[in-house]
């Protein structure tokens, strides 16, 4: 029962192991969620923003039909002006805004339907493209979708063109120019100034550049702000010199309205434009604006000792006293129940996975409603969907009804949901069952039903990827990861390893920088010794592929590329190293090593040094070279690094760039995935109808490739790379880095393999061939001193005809003028003629492969220098698609055609421990990556089209050898799984394999079954052809993942990121999940582990060496013939949903049918009574699930999506009113494990927060009763020591104790000051002035790091003011005046009364009374500098006296002692008039005077007596300062009056004994014409009707009544609404037949009466009655104490006794007390008959059906004992039962082994899983305690090997002995008494040893006794001198 949280994120495509972003829209639901990161993050940036669903729901399903788009909706209600409308950031009114929201939602829904970025946002919502995400012109009809979740609801940032710019420009387009966007109208002209573009007001500077994130003048020259992302004019908060105003999108000040800024923060500004703060009542609704004015949502805080909760949608607050759930139990049993019950309670009747039921389970019911008419007994062929007769929760049941209504076209317009009555839902599902059976009969098939149920299940939130926190950030290419956990519920999937992130730079797991474990599919656990051995076996298979499959060693691979090195355990690299050293002796000489050049795909910059330490067994990837080539050359002209970066990154050294040791390495420009995959993916989503970059058709891919190659031919490129020839010129001539050439840079993918050449082919071809002839010798690189965008690189050569010179520029506007560029070829090349190899031209590159192909010649001077002027060198790019800048490559003239400049490898022995060495011989190698991800899949029937066949042909023809290729990286030859979850398995490139030994084997019948690249024979032929040209064949070793295994298992999983860290706010944490982990294919079964024995014999050292990760060697004894979850770390999310494995939410237990006698099923499926709902008894609130089980130790969600927790006894956890709701608990996960503590401070469990009504806070902040603020995540856990982010992106920091940081705090990596406002929001991107220290701070916009200044920074206008002298309250600065005519308040130093705070160093600062009060300073002027509200809701002000003896002192005073307006002191009584007017009541100052704050309206206080403390004249109008109910207000003096009358009609009693209460004729006393007519006491207790009241100027209220036949006036004090007397009773709230109101202050109709709840919410509660009375209308009332509050209730709602229905199971427990057993009736009731006491039933687990509570407060439960209904005192029952025992028991592990638990049994608080009993099978252990748990299970506390564990009793032999110690003589009763070994006679394993007569009169020592089920006691003994234990009937022993 989880509530939906759907988020908006960017979808990213894998590009190498880096990312390319493409926007993917998801529906945004609700508000107030917070994202978390660790506390040590320097720049806390949230990657997700989960929101609470507005339409969230109960149970395992959450609908997505209502997707709420605007997550930052301001409250659409005004305060005092009925005509005003809420102001959004756009300046639009609500009606206009709602219309826009509808349009926007439609547009967004269209996008979200396919989760891609197709740029289909409505042009009315189109925003300017984000600068950092686009390099191209965009026309309007392309419709940009901005990659920012705030813009999904960006309609609120629109400006109505009628209010701003009247002329709307359409039909133009945006272009990016010089790093800015411009807008070109239809004529192509740039627009400037304030413009309305398609309904969006935007501003363009004088050069046409669009303004973003800055201010410009609006239409009326007002200051308008333009959004930093969209450039649209929006509303904003202005803070100039400390003056805060709200400004709308037209630049006008906001008054009497809400404002929502660009981040989504909502504020309110009153009619004077002042920002409201604190608890406010607007239009009769309560809101809370925090210390900085932010409207709080999903927020709870304590005010006046009362918790108020502000909802997550509107922010409207209400007290948290009333229960929010519906009460009452619904019987789940009906006429259908017995028929729909399961035929049996085991696996025979249920589809299951390892005994567990899933949403897809079908079952065999007892009967089938044949044809929808007649019940007939079912057969095993009559299975039906489980979800046809049972559902895990109400919402899923409602969804099922709604879905089936569409299926059967029966929808009558009713939409069911979780709030629908349970009985109504049950009836509807029965009707659907009838329809289903009718259609089955008509169709004579159930296939249609299978299809419908499958579709229904996929739509449910809890059974789809929607509940899996899908996210494509980081490395989550498949949407996210699930980590496997150990669990006692699935022991076959557990592992002792799974040591994550043990990559090269984190071998021991202790590095500060962790690796990334998870990448794709099933993540192989490479820390597991069994898996490590299997990886070695597979490596050996690849390296001996030809030998193994065809006895042809010439077809063996020579080396490997290790895939995804930064995601695998680095032990594998050691294993590969040791294997190559042992087999090929690569560590003994360069000649051996260079025959087996292996490479790593290791992207981390931390890897190379570790590879060196490891002995350079493989070549590390030089990412520096690739990054410099890409960023300096291939990016757009305005986005390039300096050309000198090619020099900085050209070599790799150890241990750093200045080190003397060169690191052997390789590099490349692009690869099959890097700089390719992401680009094609983006084109697919931008220009085709593909679902995403992972899911597309062949036709869509062809469209994308065609677009891609067309883009390559453009001079201004949209997607493809610039200067590829220049990049290859640098790469292929660079020294000390082996180049790898990428197939896709030479051949196109939209044609057959090696058929169509790219436009770069000729250049790369020439460079490769020239590398053989010319590239050798030393290298000199440089950048021209004047033209620093020109680079020269020279390889000197080892002879006069060798060497090569390269000139590259990345400036397309290069102009040398009269300057020259010099190539210094070296003095040995003096006076030598050179020719061009490559030469940039106006429209391309000229290629000259031979001397004869060109007549261009240049000669070096006497120093070997070639000089080039602007005749040669200039910037190209306008018409040149291949060169953006300049490129030339020069070589010597005269070289022999067969010249080979490459250096032979040394055969000398190496002894330095390194395999590879950076030297000239290694440098001559070239690797060829011979495939592309997107290469066309050939017609595999035509052998000549197969990739491997073509490779063999081209190799034989010399194509690769002519290029100088020395290592051919073969395509991954594995057969693709075709699962389509990632691009690899869509394009079938070989990386997404299931059977990793299948490299293209034939079918079983011998027919060919090629992979994408061919058959095994094709592969062997290709390898042999390469070998024939001395080219190494490199295999792709992919040890990290396995796709699409066919077999399923159930295991425990947690949603994690790539590092294995739990995903913030994950639905999936320690839950059972169905995973695809079994299998591996035919060849895994054949070859898996097959060669380990052989390897162990040949190379024993490989198997004795401990691996670094585990400290133990590989395990060669276990062969993996089939994969299992125990060999994996986890998997990608599989889309099954968080709760696909079904459980009962109340007991938190999974349904299981593994064994019939242990089956756990919904009670109704076992034809047992089941009731569901919330119910209240004398103790508290209980809940029963839809399956009939009581909630215990579990969280439950009600129909309104609120969460609660039920304790071990099954009662709701909730604090008493006025007490803290912070609760620490040890919670048990659904998988049986205890929820781990978040940190050491929580060692006793995690903290949760519950309000007085039991509601748990989730995804929100709480200000507790002590004033401290905490944050609770999506599962209600308090977070500590980390940053959290709200939906608006505001950052908060939580301390180690969970409290929210405020004030100036040392934090971050740099240990610098951060500042957190009093509302906890971190200040970023702002300048602040500290009043306390007179310092200025500038806070970084990203990290929040501060920089301090002594003076105000230049040009600073907008700044905030802070006060670091106190962390209490919020800054203020205004003048006030002390008013103490009515009240007298103390003055306090340091802090307000009762408050203790801390200084910056953490020391306590306590309040201190200075022995002075406000009475002495009446009327004095003070300055208020700070405001603070304490935990009781009292507002305090920090004041500084302007003069007198306290001048200059800062003191705290109650805010009620101050007013902001000077006044004339008074002290008189008055009344709020009944006149026909409704005046405002204002705090601080009169209306429209600075600081005024509306607090209420006079209408609700008419007739209220007030004290007038003073009067002030404002603009000619008198205002009165009045006090009532302890608070002072300003009110218009005209609203006050005396000497006035008011008509009324109310019955009252005369109630006085005073001689002073007279009765007056004509008029009240002292009024003209009054006449005494008698005394009121003479009519005491008479009922009268008040017809009029008179309010005199003395403060007395007179009532006009009729007494003695005369109309008289009497003092109102002589009348009473009720006749009340004290009483002292204990009664029960009894709403069994009625439901009455509970009233505060007075009964119904009484003055001040306030309804606070209904009795049904408290049924059965025992209460104290302190007063009773009758009102004048005859109603009887009682004053009771309920939840610490005194309330009035109708006397008929109370009773002296109460009978209630119950549905509970508990234990009779007489261990501490003995109670009677009563038949017929409870004790003290008539007919009660004593039947014994509880000792006779001690420990019995019984069902309780009723509870009776008697007059004295005792409660009795009705149960059944020995077939008799029996009443027992409630105190005789416990939820669990414990007995001290002394037993010996033998462990006999069941087929499904049980766990062993410390601290407590499984399922109870504190239980810690330790081990399985299988490891201790047949061990006899002592048992000291027996525990019966709340579910009726029995547990033994057994001591195993010296440690105590709780173990399920069923894991022991049924023969359990009681420990005894006595001597006895064997005296057989008859000749039939036997002596048995193993067990007593009749039990399993019992074996007759001899007859007892054989041991006649022998004395034996009895050590144990066992009583069988038949009541016979057997004694256990040993014969003298023997150890074996024997058994004998105790009756055959004589003591």
Write the layout of secondary structure elements.
Blueprint: E1 9-15, E2 18-24, E3 35-38, H1 94-112, E4 138-139, E5 168-169, E6 173-177, E7 180-184, E8 193-197, E9 200-204, E10 214-217, E11 223-226, E12 233-234, E13 236-240, E14 243-247, E15 257-260, E16 266-269, E17 278-282, E18 285-289, E19 299-303, E20 306-310, E21 317-319, E22 330-331, H2 337-340, E23 362-363, E24 367-370, E25 374-377, E26 384-385, H3 394-407, H4 422-443, H5 447-459, E27 481-485, E28 522-524, H6 529-543, H7 545-550, E29 559-562, H8 571-584, H9 590-593, E30 599-600, H10 607-613, E31 620-621, H11 623-634, H12 645-648, E32 653-654, E33 661-662, E34 665-667, H13 677-687, H14 698-712, H15 724-733, E35 738-742, H16 761-774, E36 779-783, E37 790-795, E38 804-809, E39 821-824, E40 833-841, E41 844-847, E42 858-859, E43 865-868, E44 886-892, H17 920-923, E45 927-929, H18 947-956, H19 959-962, E46 967-969, H20 983-987, H21 1016-1028, E47 1032-1037, E48 1041-1042, E49 1047-1056, E50 1069-1078, H22 1082-1087, H23 1092-1098, E51 1128-1132, E52 1143-1144, E53 1149-1150, E54 1171-1176, E55 1181-1184, E56 1194-1197, E57 1203-1206, ...
Parallel strand pairs: 5-8, 19-60, 29-30, 29-47, 31-34, 34-35, 35-45, 45-46, 46-47, 66-69
Antiparallel strand pairs: 1-2, 3-62, 4-6, 6-7, 8-9, 10-11, 11-12, 13-14, 15-16, 17-18, 19-20, 20-21, 22-54, 23-26, 24-25, 27-49, 27-51, 28-48, 28-51, 32-33, 36-37, 37-38, 38-44, 39-43, 40-41, 40-42, 40-44, 49-50, 52-53, 54-55, 56-57, 58-59, 60-61, 62-63, 64-65, 66-67, 67-68, 70-75, 70-78, 71-74, ...
């Amino acid at each position: 029962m989880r509530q939906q949280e759907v988020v908006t994120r960017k979808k990213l495509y894998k590009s190498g192991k880096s990312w390319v972003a493409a926007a993917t829209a998801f529906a945004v639901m609700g508000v107030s969620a917070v994202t978390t990161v660790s506390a040590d993050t320097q720049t806390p940036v949230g990657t997700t923003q989960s929101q609470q669903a507005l339409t969230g729901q109960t149970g395992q399903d959450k609908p997505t039909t209502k997707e709420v788009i605007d997550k930052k909706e301001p409250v659409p209600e005004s305060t005092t002006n009925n005509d005003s409308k809420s102001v959004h950031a756009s300046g639009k009114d609500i009606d206009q805004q709602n219309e826009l929201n509808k349009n926007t939602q439609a547009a967004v829904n269209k996008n979200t339907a396919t989760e891609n970025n197709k740029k289909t946002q409505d042009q009315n919502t189109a925003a300017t493209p984000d600068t950092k995400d686009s390099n191209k012109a965009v026309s309007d009809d392309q419709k940009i979708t901005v990659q920012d979740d705030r813009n999904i609801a960006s309609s609120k940032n629109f400006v109505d063109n009628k209010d701003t710019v009247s002329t709307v420009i359409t039909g133009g387009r945006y272009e990016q120019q010089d790093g800015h966007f411009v807008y070109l109208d239809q004529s192509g002209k740039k627009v400037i100034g304030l413009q309305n573009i398609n309904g969006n007001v935007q501003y363009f500077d004088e050069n046409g550049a669009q303004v973003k994130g800055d201010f410009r003048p609006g239409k009326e020259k007002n200051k308008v702000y333009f959004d930093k992302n969209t450039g649209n004019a929006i509303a904003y908060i202005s803070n100039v010199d400390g003056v805060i105003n709200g400004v709308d999108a037209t630049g006008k000040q906001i008054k009497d309205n809400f404002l929502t800024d660009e981040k989504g923060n909502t504020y309110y500004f009153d009619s004077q434009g002042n920002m409201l703060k604190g608890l406010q009542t607007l239009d009769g609704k309560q809101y809370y604006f925090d210390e900085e004015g932010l409207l709080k949502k999903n927020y709870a805080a304590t005010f006046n000792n009362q918790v108020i909760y502000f909802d997550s949608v509107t922010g409207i607050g209400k007290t948290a006293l009333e229960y929010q759930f519906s009460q009452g139990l619904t019987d789940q049993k009906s006429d259908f129940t017995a028929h729909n019950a399961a035929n049996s309670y085991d696996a025979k009747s249920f589809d299951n996975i390892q005994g567990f039921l899933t949403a897809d389970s079908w079952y065999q019911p007892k009967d089938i409603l044949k044809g929808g008419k007649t019940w007939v007994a079912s057969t095993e062929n009559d299975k039906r969907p489980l979800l046809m007769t049972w559902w895990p929760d109400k919402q899923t049941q409602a969804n099922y009804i709604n879905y089936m209504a569409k299926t059967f076209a029966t929808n009558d317009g009713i939409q069911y949901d979780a709030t629908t009555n349970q009985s109504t839902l049950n009836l509807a599902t029965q009707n659907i069952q009838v329809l289903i059976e009718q259609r089955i009969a008509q169709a004579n098939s159930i296939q249609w039903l299978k299809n419908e149920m499958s579709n229904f299940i996929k739509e449910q939130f809890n059974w789809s990827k929607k509940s899996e926190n899908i996210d494509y950030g980081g490395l989550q290419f498949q949407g996210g990861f699930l980590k496997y956990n150990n669990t006692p519920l699935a022991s076959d999937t557990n592992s002792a390893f799974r040591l994550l992130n043990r990559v090269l730079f984190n071998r021991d797991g202790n590095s500060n920088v962790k690796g990334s474990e998870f990448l794709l599919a099933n993540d192989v656990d490479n820390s597991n010794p069994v898996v490590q051995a299997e990886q070695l076996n597979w490596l050996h298979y690849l390296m001996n592929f030809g030998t193994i499959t065809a006895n042809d060693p010439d077809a063996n691979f020579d080396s490997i590329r290790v895939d995804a090195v930064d995601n695998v355990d680095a032990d594998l690299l050691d294993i590969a190293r040791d294997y190559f050293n042992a087999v090929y002796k690569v560590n003994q000489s360069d000649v051996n090593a260079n025959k087996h050049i292996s490479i790593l795909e290791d992207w981390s910059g931390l890897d190379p040094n570790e590879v060196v330490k490891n002995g350079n067994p493989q070549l590390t990837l030089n990412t520096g070279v690739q990054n410099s080539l890409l960023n300096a050359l291939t990016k757009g002209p305005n986005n390039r690094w300096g050309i000198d970066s090619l020099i900085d990154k050209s070599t790799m050294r150890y241990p750093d760039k200045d080190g003397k040791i060169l690191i052997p390495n390789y590099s490349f420009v692009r690869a099959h995935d890097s700089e390719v995959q992401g680009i094609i993916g983006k084109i697919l989503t931008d220009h085709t109808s593909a679902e995403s970059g992972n899911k597309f058709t062949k036709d869509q891919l062809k469209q994308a490739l065609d677009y891609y190659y067309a883009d390559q031919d453009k001079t201004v490129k949209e997607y493809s790379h610039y200067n590829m020839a220049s990049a290859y010129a640098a790469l292929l001539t660079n020294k000390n880095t082996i180049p790898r050439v990428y197939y896709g840079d030479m051949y196109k993918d939209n044609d057959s393999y090696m058929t169509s050449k790219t436009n770069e082919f000729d250049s790369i071809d020439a460079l490769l061939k020239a590398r053989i002839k010319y590239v050798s010798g030393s290298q000199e690189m440089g950048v021209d001193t004047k033209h620093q965008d020109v680079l020269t690189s020279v390889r000197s050569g080892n002879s006069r005809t060798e060497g090569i010179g390269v000139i590259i520029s990345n400036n397309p506007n290069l102009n040398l003028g009269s300057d020259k560029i010099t190539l210094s070829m070296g003095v040995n090349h003096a006076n030598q003629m050179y020719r061009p190899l490559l030469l940039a031209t106006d429209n391309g590159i000229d290629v000259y492969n031979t001397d004869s192909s060109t007549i261009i010649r240049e000669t070096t001077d006497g120093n070997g220098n070639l000089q080039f002027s602007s005749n040669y060198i200039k910037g190209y790019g306008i018409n040149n698609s291949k060169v953006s800048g300049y490129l030339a490559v020069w070589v010597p003239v005269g070289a022999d055609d067969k010249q080979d400049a490459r250096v032979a490898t040394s055969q000398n022995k190496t002894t330095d421990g390194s395999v590879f060495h950076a030297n000239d011989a290694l440098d001559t190698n070239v690797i060829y990556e011979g495939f592309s991800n997107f290469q066309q899949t050939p017609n595999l029937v035509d052998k000549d089209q197969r990739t491997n066949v073509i490779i063999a042909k081209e190799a034989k023809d010399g194509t690769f050898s002519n290029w100088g290729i020395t290592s051919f990286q073969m395509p991954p030859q594995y057969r693709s799984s075709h699962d389509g979850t990632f691009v690899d398995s869509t394009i079938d490139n070989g990386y997404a394999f299931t059977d990793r030994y299948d490299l293209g084997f034939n079918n079983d019948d011998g027919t060919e079954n090629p992979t994408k690249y061919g058959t095994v024979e094709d592969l062997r032929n290709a390898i042999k052809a390469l070998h024939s040209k001395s080219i190494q064949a490199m295999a792709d070793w992919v040890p990290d993942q396995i796709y699409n295994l066919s077999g399923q298992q159930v295991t425990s999983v947690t949603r994690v990121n790539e590092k294995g860290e739990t995903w913030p706010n994950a639905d999936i944490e320690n839950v059972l999940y169905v995973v695809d982990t079994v299998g591996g294919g035919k060849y895994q079964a054949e070859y898996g582990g097959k060669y380990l024995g052989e390897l162990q014999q040949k190379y024993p050292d490989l198997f004795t060496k401990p691996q670094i990760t585990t400290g133990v060697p590989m395990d060669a004894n276990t062969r993996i013939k089939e994969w299992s979850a125990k060999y994996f770390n986890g998997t990608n999310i599989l889309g099954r949903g968080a709760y696909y494995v079904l459980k009962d939410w109340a007991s938190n237990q999974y349904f299981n049918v593994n064994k019939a006698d242990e089956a756990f099923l919904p009670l109704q499926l076992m034809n047992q009574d089941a009731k569901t709902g919330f119910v209240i008894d004398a103790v508290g609130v209980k809940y029963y699930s839809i399956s009939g089980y009581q909630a215990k130790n579990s969280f439950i969600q009600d129909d309104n999506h609120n969460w609660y927790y039920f304790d071990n006894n099954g009662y709701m956890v909730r604090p008493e009113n006025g007490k803290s709701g912070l609760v620490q608990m040890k919670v048990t996960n659904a998988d049986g494990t205890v929820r781990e503590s978040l940190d050491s401070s929580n060692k006793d469990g995690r903290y949760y927060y519950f309000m007085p009504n039991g509601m748990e806070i989730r995804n929100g902040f709480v200000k507790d009763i002590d004033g401290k603020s905490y944050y609770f995540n999506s599962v209600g856990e308090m977070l500590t020591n980390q940053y959290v982010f709200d939906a608006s992106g505001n950052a908060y920091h939580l301390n180690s104790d969970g409290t929210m940081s405020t004030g100036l705090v040392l934090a971050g990596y740099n240990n610098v000051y951060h500042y957190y406002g009093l509302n906890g929001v971190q200040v970023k991107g702002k300048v602040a002035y500290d009043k306390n220290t007179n310092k200025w701070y500038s806070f970084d916009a990203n990290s929040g790091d501060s920089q301090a200044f002594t003076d105000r920074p230049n040009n600073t206008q907008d700044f905030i003011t802070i006060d670091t002298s106190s962390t209490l309250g919020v800054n203020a600065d205004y003048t006030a005046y002390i008013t103490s005519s009515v009240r007298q308040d103390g003055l306090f130093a340091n802090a307000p009364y009762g408050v203790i705070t801390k200084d910056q160093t953490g020391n306590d600062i306590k309040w201190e009374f200075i022995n002075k009060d406000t009475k002495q300073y009446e009327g004095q002027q003070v300055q208020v500098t700070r405001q603070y509200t304490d935990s009781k809701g009292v507002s305090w002000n920090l004041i500084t006296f302007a003069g007198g003896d306290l001048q200059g002192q800062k003191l705290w005073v109650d805010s009620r002692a101050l007013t902001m307006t000077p006044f004339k002191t008074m002290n008189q009584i008055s009344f709020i008039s009944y006149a026909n007017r409704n005046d405002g009541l204002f705090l601080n100052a009169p209306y429209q005077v600075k600081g005024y704050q509306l607090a209420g309206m006079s209408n609700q206080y008419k007739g209220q007596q007030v004290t007038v403390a003073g009067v002030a004249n404002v603009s000619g109008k008198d205002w009165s300062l009045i006090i009532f109910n302890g608070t002072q207000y300003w009110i218009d003096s005209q609203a006050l009056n005396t000497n006035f009358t008011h008509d009324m009609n109310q019955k009252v009693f005369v109630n006085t004994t005073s001689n002073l209460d007279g009765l007056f004729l004509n008029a009240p006393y002292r009024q003209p014409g009054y006449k005494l007519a008698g005394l009121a006491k003479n009519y005491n207790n008479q009922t009268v009707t008040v017809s009029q009241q008179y309010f005199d100027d003395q403060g007395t209220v007179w009532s006009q009544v009729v007494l003695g036949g005369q109309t008289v006036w009497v003092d109102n004090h002589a009348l009473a609404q009720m006749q009340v007397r004290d009483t002292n009773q204990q009664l029960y709230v009894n709403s069994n037949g009625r439901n009455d109101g509970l009233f505060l202050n007075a009964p119904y109709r009484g003055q001040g009466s306030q309804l606070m709840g209904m009795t049904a919410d408290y049924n059965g509660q025992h209460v104290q009655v302190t007063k009773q009375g009758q009102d004048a209308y005859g109603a009887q009332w009682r004053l009771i104490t309920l939840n610490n509050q005194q309330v009035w209730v109708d006397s008929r709602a109370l009773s002296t006794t109460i009978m209630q229905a119950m549905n509970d199971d508990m234990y009779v427990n007489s261990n501490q007390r003995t109670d009677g057993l009563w038949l017929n009736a409870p004790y003290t009731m008539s007919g009660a008959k004593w039947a014994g006491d509880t000792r006779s039933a001690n420990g019995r687990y019984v069902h309780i059906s009723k509870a009776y509570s008697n007059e004295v407060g005792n409660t009795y439960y009705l149960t059944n004992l020995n077939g008799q209904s029996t009443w027992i005192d409630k105190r005789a029952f416990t939820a669990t039962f414990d007995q001290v025992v002394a037993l010996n028991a033998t462990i006999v592990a069941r087929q499904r082994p049980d766990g062993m638990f410390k601290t407590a049994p499984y399922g109870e608080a504190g239980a810690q899983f330790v081990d399985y009993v299988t490891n201790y099978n047949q061990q006899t252990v002592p048992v000291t305690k027996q525990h019966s748990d709340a579910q009726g299970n029995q547990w033994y506390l057994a001591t195993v090997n010296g440690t105590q564990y709780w173990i399920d009793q069923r894991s022991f032999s049924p023969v359990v002995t009681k420990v005894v110690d006595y001597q006895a003589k064997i005296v057989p009763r008859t000749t039939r008494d036997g002596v048995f070994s193993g067990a007593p006679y009749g039990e399993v394993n019992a074996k007759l040893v001899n007859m007892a007569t054989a041991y006649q009169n022998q004395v034996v020592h009895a050590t144990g006794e066992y009583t069988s089920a038949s009541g016979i006691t057997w004694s256990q003994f040993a014969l003298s001198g023997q150890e074996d234990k024997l058994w004998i009937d105790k009756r055959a022993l004589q003591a």
